[in-house]
Design goal:
Layout (H helix, E strand, L loop, with lengths): L5 H5 L1 H4 L10 H26 L5 H23 L2 H36 L7 H25 L4 H4 L4 H27 L7 H17 L15 H11 L18 H6 L1 H10 L13 H12 L6
Helix pairs in contact: 3-4, 3-5, 4-5, 4-8, 5-6, 6-8, 8-9, 12-13
Length: about 300
């Protein structure tokens, strides 16, 4: 199933919208998300065709691509819920990769083969275009992989400056890819593989995660654990709307005391530790309510 599956479009109010980021209608959010695919591809393709054949075409196009990716990241994170923004940026890059292969690389190869078979001169533009766009696809690969799994890491897409986090982590993926691109040539020429780029990218990821990880709770006197009745009220207001007898997302029900206690660990993990739930905080769960759930769970999830 693709990251932007049917539910993402048909339930845009749940998957695309975080009212704390941008309060708009599901129709507008879906239309804008689709526009990202079209605008990014046409801007990228135009840059390759207009600037790609100059004396420093690869460098110029590379710079334009970086600007487009950064702009798309910034704009998406200022319009959509963090989880959706990361997926949209990755999806538009993946779409560009697919379009490169389908509309330029493979058709260009076919034209070259046809010219060779007919004994005609081969237009070098096909090789130049194919190589340039293949290079872009190569460096897009790891950034796209990261965005596709980013929905599991709430502390990343939920960061204060999440667009910058997205750009930095995609840069780290591109740096790792540089070492693998240069590896083959280094082995052929019997030179050491330049792993320094991969090391730099890895350190960048480690540093980013270290900065984003929440600090451990201070070892000070804490408020007493709330009663189970208080926790049940919080869950009923913030969680049961998606976890009940009629709609048990992930096969989890939280519409009774027994169900809440049975899923206490999952509630604590998703709502307190990862802060992934409620989805895009659609029910406006407060930090105080999350803290109350934390104290209840850490006290042993008592039934009273």
């Amino acid at each position: 199933m693709t990251p932007l599956d049917k539910a993402s479009w048909y339930q845009g109010e749940t998957f695309l919208i975080d009212k704390n980021v941008h309060d708009w209608t599901p129709t507008a959010a879906v239309a804008t998300a689709l526009a990202f695919f079209v605008v990014f591809w046409f801007a990228y393709d135009a840059a390759c065709r207009i600037f790609g054949r100059g004396p420093r075409g690869d460098l110029v196009v590379g710079a334009v691509v970086v600007v487009l990716v950064v702009l798309a990241s910034w704009l998406a994170c200022h319009l959509f819920a963090g989880r959706a923004a990361f997926l949209i940026v990755g999806a538009v890059m993946a779409t560009a990769m697919t379009a490169n292969v389908a509309h330029w690389i493979i058709p260009g190869q076919r034209k070259v083969v046809a010219a060779l078979r007919e004994g005609k001169p081969v237009d070098p533009v096909h090789g130049q275009r194919g190589k340039q766009r293949s290079v872009h696809n190569t460096y897009f690969t790891l950034p796209v992989v990261f965005t596709m799994i980013s929905n599991h890491y709430g502390f990343v897409f939920g960061a204060k400056h999440n667009w910058l986090v997205l750009v930095v982590l995609m840069l780290a993926g591109a740096l790792v890819r540089v070492s693998f691109v240069l590896r083959h040539k280094a082995l052929v020429e019997e030179r050491p593989v330049p792993w320094r780029y991969a090391i730099a990218g890895t350190l960048l990821v480690v540093a980013t995660v270290a900065v984003l990880l929440p600090a451990p709770p201070a070892a000070t006197a804490r408020m007493p654990a709330p009663t189970f009745a208080e926790v049940e009220t919080i869950v009923a207001q913030r969680c049961s709307v998606c976890h009940n007898a009629g709609l048990a997302n992930k096969n989890v029900r939280l519409d009774s005391g027994a169900e809440i206690r049975a899923h206490a660990q999952a509630v604590y993990q998703q709502a307190v530790v990862l802060k992934l739930m409620p989805m895009n905080n659609a029910t406006q769960m407060t930090d105080g309510e999350r803290a109350a759930v934390a104290r209840w769970y850490e006290a042993g999830a008592p039934a009273r």
